[in-house]
Structures are given as structure tokens and as C-alpha cells.
Amino acid sequence: MNLYLKNIAGGLILIIGLILFFSSLINKNINIALVSLTSSLLLWVIFGLYFDTFDVQIFSLVISSAGFLLAISVFFLYGVEEVAHPIGAIVFHSGGIAGSLGIGLFSLFPLLIMHQINSQSVPPKPNFINNSKVSQQESKLESDDWEIATEEELQSDEFEVG
Fold first, then answer.
1. CB neighbours of 63 closer than 8 A, spacing ≥ 6?
2. What single DSSP character describes residue 81?
3. Which residues pair with 82 in a beta bridge?
4. Which of 31, 40, 80, 129 has its CA 20 to 30 A from that of 99?
5. CA 74 to each of CA 23, 32, 55, 59, 60: distance values in angstroms, whole numbers, following the listed order
6. Domains in the chain, number
7. d(CA 156, CA 7)
8. For residue 160, is it within any domain?
9. How far apart are CA 143 and CA 16, in angstroms?
């Protein structure tokens, strides 16, 4: 199987998992949605490792995206409730909001780790100072080719007192 077909098959696994996830969420069954999301992610990782198409950066992006989807789902299933008495009233539940914020926080970790790894691997910016002139000046100062200036030379303003 060539690389293009392997990537399409891996993406198809993720798309099928997302379809199952959203269809379970429509039925308000978070347990089946979580099982379908997790199993599709595991199957995608195993597929990528078996066919040697696994990429850590894509993995961190997919894991973070799945976590954010789960956080949004938990927020709307358990954090927000529409009540009937005042028409159109919405009640917020602190337990559901806290759970969704916690899931969202943990979903940030793969992205932050990849950002930290990428920022450390970037080579330092080039120094625009001409290093050859600096090294020549330092070598002149450190050389033994000098003599003590006399009082007349110091008063003539041709030299700087350092």
C-alpha cells in the first residue's frame, strides 16, 4: 500500500470514529460516544504504527482535538440545562462546567509539549555583529605588543584613557 492510501485509510478511521461519536452524542449517550472516540483513536494509532505512518505532531494535534470535542460535549450535556418554567431559561451546573474545563485543560498539554519541543529545536537567530572584527579587536588588546603611554601622549588627545 503506498503512502497516500495509508494516510487516507488513517484519516478514514478518524472520520468513522467522529461520525460514531457525534451520532452517540445526538442520542445523549456519552458512554458510547466516549468508547467510539477512544477506540477509533487507538485503532488509528495502531494502524499508523503498523504501516509506519505515525507522526507525533499529528498525534498530539488529534489527541488535543479529541479532548476539546469531549470537553465541549461534557459542557453541553452536563453543564448547561434548559428548564421549562421561565420560557427559554438556561441553568448552569458547576459540576459539568468544572468537568469540561478540566478536560479542556488536560487537552492543552499535548499542544503545549509539542510547542515547547518545537521552540527548543529552532536554531538561534543569527547574530548581526561581525564576529571577525570583534575577535581581531580582542586579540589586539590581549597581545603583548604595546607600551605604556607617556604623559605627553595622554595630553595630546590622540588616545583614549581606558
1. 41, 107, 110
2. E
3. 90
4. 40
5. 15, 13, 28, 22, 21
6. 1
7. 78
8. no
9. 74
Is 95 part of a structural domain of the chain? yes
Q: Within a domain: residue 45?
A: yes
* Integer CA distances (angstroms), 162 to 141, 147, 149, 158, in order: 11, 14, 12, 13
Q: Which range of residues forms the domain containing residue 99? A: 3-121
For the stretch 74-132, pLDDT in tens is 999 999 998 888 888 999 999 999 999 999 999 999 999 999 998 887 666 666 655 55
> Other CB atoms closer than 10 Å to residue 159's CB: what's the count?
10
Distance CA 116, CA 109 (A): 10
pLDDT in tens, 3-14: 889 889 999 999
Paired residues of 90 in beta bridges: 82
- Give the torsion sign (CA, 81, 84, 89, 93): negative
pLDDT confidence band for 150 (50 / 70 / 90) = confident
In a domain, 126, yes or no: no
Q: Tell me what pLDDT residue 155 has.
A: 77
Percent of the chain predicted with pLDDT > 90:
63
